Amino acid sequence: MFGASADADQLVLCYNPFLRFLTQKQEIQLVLLRVRSIFLITLTVLMAASLAFGQTTPEKKDEAKSTPTPTPAAVLRDPTKPVTADQVVESAIVFYGFPAGRPTLNQIRKTTFERGRMTTTTAEGKTESGTYQRWIIRGDSLGKEKVRIDTDTPGSRFSLVYNEGKIFGIFNNSVFPPRADLARSFENTMYRGLEGMLRYKENESKVELAGKEKIFGVEYYFIDVTDKQDRKTRYYVSVKTFRVMMLTYEENGISYRRRFYNYNYAQGTLVPYRTTLTANEKLIEESEIGTITFGQKVDEDLFKENR
């Protein structure tokens, strides 16, 4: 009897639609309650973790930084140390032969071949324009240098040669002694040019810092270079770029000023492609490089008197 009654109850539950609906509803509510509980627990954990992360300052790791290439400017800007002439000049040398400076210049500029155009103005005011070619074999100092320049103008065509201190001219394959003013002007392109400062140590010249001043908005270091022949030249070195923008000197009562323009790099070394020279503020010479190469073979016979 008991077993039959239980079976009857099961049948009632299975086939009574209303009771079946209530049973399913209760089951759905239980599932929803469980899901809601899980969702609330998960949300609480996430909020707690977020709050903890926001309040915790993450430990900073050492960032990998590339070592900056030391620049001479950084040394010169140390306010606790006075700037010296050697610092300024050595800094300039680095920029002219970056990155090693003097070794770079010595390695790359063992020889030079240059060609371009030039214009000269005589004392009588006559202007001549033409082309030039220059060959250089670098020496241990300017005194050991070998330099030859060939000029070709409508009025003349000749060569001037500097061979380890000796100067002579060549015209129609004949050697001649140049006029004193012509020889002195040729020599000044070397000793009173950029190399006069850049190679002051090799030339055993004395350098002095003569001041620092702004001219037409550009700030310069004034570097006085005096060579062993007691020739004194003042170089105007840009405080910003360490380039020589001009130089001045006096000779026989005349004030000369050489300016350098259009700086560019040739085989990794800094070269001014345009140069002017004034005498008592009057333009007497202007040259512009067309091409320049370093390190090529140069025939030493070019510098001999008897070829």
What does this structure look like?
The chain has a 13-stranded antiparallel β-sheet with strand order 6-5-4-3-2-1-13-12-11-10-9-8-7. The chain is 31% helix and 38% strand. The protein has a single domain (72-303), classed as outer membrane lipoprotein receptor (LolB), chain A, CATH 2.50.20. Mean pLDDT is 83; it is low at 1-23 and 48-70. It is an alpha+beta fold and 307 residues long. It starts with a helix and ends in a 13-residue tail after the last strand.
Key features?
307 residues; 13-stranded antiparallel beta sheet; outer membrane lipoprotein receptor (LolB), chain A; disordered N terminus; globular; 13 strands; 7 helices
* Largest sheet geometry: 13 strands, antiparallel
Query: CATH homologous superfamily name?
Result: Lipoprotein localisation LolA/LolB/LppX
**Count of separate DSSP helical elements:** 7
Mean pLDDT: 83
The portion of residues assigned to helices is: 25-40%
User: Ends: how far apart?
Assistant: 144 Å
Order of strands, main sheet, comes to 6-5-4-3-2-1-13-12-11-10-9-8-7
CATH architecture: Clam
How would the global form be characterised? globular
Care to count the β-strands?
13
What string gives the helices and strands in order? HHHHHEEEEEEHHEEEEEEE
- CATH class reads Mainly Beta
What is the CATH topology assignment?
outer membrane lipoprotein receptor (LolB), chain A
Going by helix content, strand content and strand pairing, the class is alpha+beta
- Count of spatially separate domains: 1
Rounded Rg: 42 Å
Tell me the β content: 35-45%
Which segments are poorly predicted (pLDDT under 50) over 5 or more consecutive residues? Answer: 1-23, 48-70
